[in-house]
Design a protein that fits this description.
Blueprint: E1 2-5, H1 11-23, E2 27-32, E3 37-42, H2 50-54, E4 59-63, E5 83-85, E6 88-90, E7 96-100, H3 107-119, E8 124-126, H4 144-157, E9 161-164, E10 179-182, H5 190-197, E11 202-206, H6 213-225, E12 231-235, H7 253-260, E13 265-267, H8 269-273, H9 276-289, E14 293-297, H10 315-332
Parallel strand pairs: 7-8, 7-14, 8-9, 9-10, 10-11, 11-12, 12-13, 13-14
Antiparallel strand pairs: 1-3, 1-4, 2-3, 5-6
Length: 334
């Protein structure tokens, strides 16, 4: 249920209305925009008389929301959310480029890549320390040591770092991580999502291999219901019957999510296609579709990468794509 207030409602009256709602056993999400204030009621609202609320002089309208996701719903929060990560902003016209290797392999590797992607316009550094792999015999990441190397790269470049968490027990290790990534395999690891909801960390939530947009938003809701509203959604391709690409990049998800939610939306063309030469056209298409950011894998020597070398760009390739991304962004500005 949402209550839209008329412009200019005094703060004292607003607080009294919020207190009354909370006495009815619901929590209240307040969204103050430039022209209106929206109160989103989360919980069992069946006992609240909508007609009574609508009759109040300060209330413009009252609507009941049928979608099960509340906090992530654009109806609760009409204006786009802007998330700040260090000196980087994402959302509402603020575009972010997250770049770096699939996995951290050595200090020399991560420092070289970090410096080069920053020089080419990246605003955040990605790198896997804990790696979920289909085979138990594949490289599983450098774990805690990998996190330490990421922090060294952050210190050297100033770039905020993005890295994936596998287990809630690892949260103490992520204290200095700027953005915690929840991978596709863990999108519906609800116990992990609940623990992340108790933090104030920015969470980058990737869509699962075979999950709907509604399921993605419900997973975001798990995090937000815990009190953490710093969530970025990531479209990274879904599994279909097509075999020429690793996954099928669902670019229609970007404008559809834009209608459904206020949260920032990032696209990962590297994992979606699994092929380095396809990253550029899909990245540019994602920008044109209205994404708030891109997540691109960059490795200083893809042929010798311990993880996902086939989809990784060289720093030189990333530099060329970054320039094209800027041109597309200029072209689509209104």
């Amino acid at each position: 249920m949402i209550t839209v207030l008329k412009p200019g409602v005094p703060e004292e009256q607003l607080n009294k209305l919020i207190d009354w709602f909370e006495e009815q056993g619901v929590s209240v999400h307040v969204s103050k925009g430039e022209f209106q204030t929206v109160l989103g009621l989360v919980g069992d609202t069946r006992g609240i008389d909508g007609d009574l609320v609508a009759s109040l002089s300060m209330v413009e309208s009252v609507k009941r929301i049928s979608e099960p996701f509340k906090s992530a719903n654009r109806k609760f929060h009409p204006e786009d959310t802007v998330i700040e990560v260090g000196n980087t902003k994402i959302g509402a016209g603020n575009f972010a480029i997250i770049a770096g290797p699939c996995s951290v392999e050595s200090e020399e590797q991560i420092l070289e890549v970090a410096n080069k992607v920053k020089a080419s316009g990246a605003t955040m550094l990605r790198g896997g320390a804990f790696k979920p792999r289909t085979s138990p015999y594949d490289f599983q990441g450098m774990k805690a040591e990998g996190l330490e190397l990421l922090l060294k790269a952050k210190k050297a470049t100033g770039l905020p770092i993005v890295t994936e968490i596998m287990n809630a027990n690892h949260l103490p290790l992520f204290e200095d991580v700027d953005v915690i990534q929840v991978g596709a395999r863990n999108m519906q690891n609800f116990e992990l999502l609940k623990e992340l909801g108790k933090t104030n960390k920015t969470i980058l939530l990737k869509r699962g291999l075979a999950n709907t947009l509604k399921e993605l938003l419900m997973s975001a809701e798990y995090i937000m219901a815990g009190g953490n509203e710093n969530v970025i959604l990531c479209e990274r391709g879904i599994r279909t019957f097509e075999t020429y690409t690793r996954n099928t990049l669902d670019l229609s998800a970007v404008p559809m999510l834009r209608e459904l939610t206020h949260l920032p939306i990032v696209v990962d063309p590297s994992h979606a296609t699994g092929i380095a030469r396809l990253v550029e056209p899909m990245a540019l298409a994602a920008v044109a579709a209205g994404a708030d950011g891109l997540m691109i894998e960059v490795h200083n020597n893809p042929q010798k990468a311990l993880c996902d070398g086939a989809q990784s760009l060289t720093p030189e390739q990333f530099d060329k794509i970054s320039k094209k991304i800027n041109r597309v962004m200029e072209a689509i500005k209104e």
